[in-house]
Amino acid sequence: MLDGKKIALYVTGGIAVYKAADLARSFIKEGAEVKVAMTKSAAQFVSPLTFQILTKNAVMTNTFEETEPEVVNHIHLADWADAAVIAPATANTIAKLANGLADNFVTSALLATTAPIFVVPAMNKNMYEHPATTNNLALLKERGAYIMNPDTGFLAEGYEGKGRFPEKERIVKELTGWLKQEQVSGPLSGKRVTVTAGGTKERIDPVRYITNDSSGKMGYRLAEAARDLGATVRLITASSLPVPNGMESVAVESAQDMYEAVSEAFDSTDVLIMAAAVSDYTPAKSSNQKIKKNTGNLIIEMAQTKDILKEMGQQKTDQFLIGFAAETQNIEEYAQRKLKEKNADMIVANDVSKEDAGFNVDTNEVHLYRKEGETIYLPLADKKEIAEKILQYAVEDMKKEG
Ligand code: PMT
After folding, report:
1. What is the Cα–Cα distance from 133 to 95, expressed in whole angstroms?
2. Pocket flag, ligand 1, residue 312 (CB < 6 Å)
3. Closest ligand 1 atom to Cα of 311
4. Could you say which of 99, 212, 294, 360 is catalytic?
5. Which end of the chain has the smaller Cβ count within 10 Å, N or C?
């Protein structure tokens, strides 16, 4: 039910924390990947180690404990998640969120996240019914958060009341239903789009490789645009850019890895977009040991890699194939040739000799060569805008192809 979803589980300090451990397991059983952040008070009830062992991910509790130098942990978690679940959510954390406070790891990440927020309040009956809590929850709901109704029953305080942590089955069911509703409906709703991005790396030895200047930006913008049009997106990436929210990703290194990942996804793909700069050649033999310096030249024999787009073009049944052409001359001729030879439905040609277009820049300028329509010129614009327009024409052509 939660297949491929990335859930950030924010655990705040109440007696129900022990139930959140079981909830994390349920999310994982339903196919989600779970990362946990806890407040210091939550960690008083159950050790972060319990969550770490259950989720196989490090548990974050301290804003200033930066474990990976290339990322800021609370922003990374905020950006990573498809859904932010606060369970149990205490009156204190709810109040902080309503007022935009960011004084610990949990509240800082929650203030930074753009993922949908799902709140599971669990607290003493009188705290839950206090006008401050009621108003704060209403405010969060108004801003788009989903607020669960706590269970009524025997509370830890020894009396009956509303405020109990709901059964995990109800939480999973309500979360799943809500996330489905939250998914945007658009012209690509129900379609599965596979996008490749980045430059592959071809190993010469354990410390040396051959690659190219592709940053992955063009592919990532296309993946985001497809997601925003309602598609279920799988991003097969050779780039180290962080994966955008709301999509599944497969990290690959070489052209062969990318070929295997695309082949695996292809049967369940409706639209394949090959924006990656896949190496055409790879060292015929890669050494397991670092190659030592010798006198004289080093000759590396290169073997051809598989042409992924061409192979998928041969295998295709009803998939819509978008390829790219990175050219420096004879653009139209080469692009038209690729359209035919690779059995693609569209070739996006970029002149990579231009300063603001192609590799490792934020903008692009392209021509769309289409099987089902006239050629379209898209003048220099941000890659986001170019990606949106490419998909707009692809949707049009897919309608024509039926
Ligand atoms: O990542 P950025 O920095 O944003 O840069 C974007 C880009 C310049 C990489 C992108 O816009 C682009 O042009 N991508 C394709 C680069 C490329 O490999 O072009 P090509 O003309 O060599 O290949 C033609 C098509 O065949 C491409 O869709 C490519 O993905 C595909 N191909 C190439 C080789 C191979 N072995 N298998 C393939 O499937």
Report:
1. 7
2. no
3. 39
4. 212
5. C
CATH code at position 114: 3.40.50.1950
Six token digits for residue 214: 């592709």
Domain boundary among 152, 181, 210: 181
Same domain membership, residue 299 and residue 276: yes
Range of the domain at 221: 187-401
pLDDT of 137-151, one tens digit each?
999 988 888 899 899
- The domain total for the chain is 2
Among candidate residues 270, 280, 271, the one with its CA nearest the CA of residue 222: 271
Examine the residue annotation and report whether 350 is marked as an active-site residue of this protein. Answer: no
pTM of the entire predicted model: 0.64
- Cα torsion 279, 283, 288, 291 to 10°: value is -110
Ligand 1 pocket test: which of 309, 351, 382 has the largest number of ligand atoms within 8 Å of its C-beta?
Answer: 309
Spans in the chain with pLDDT lower than 50: none
**Residue 181 pLDDT:** 65
Q: Which tens digit of pLDDT belongs to each residue from 53-79?
A: 999 999 999 988 877 777 889 999 999
Ligand 1 site, residue 152, Cβ cutoff 6 A: no
CA 170 to ligand 1 centroid distance, Å:
46
Residue pair 324/387 in contact (Cβ under 8 Å)? The answer is no
**201 and 154 share one domain:** no
Cα–Cα separations (whole angstroms), residue 134 to 121, 153, 170, 202, 363: 11, 19, 22, 58, 47
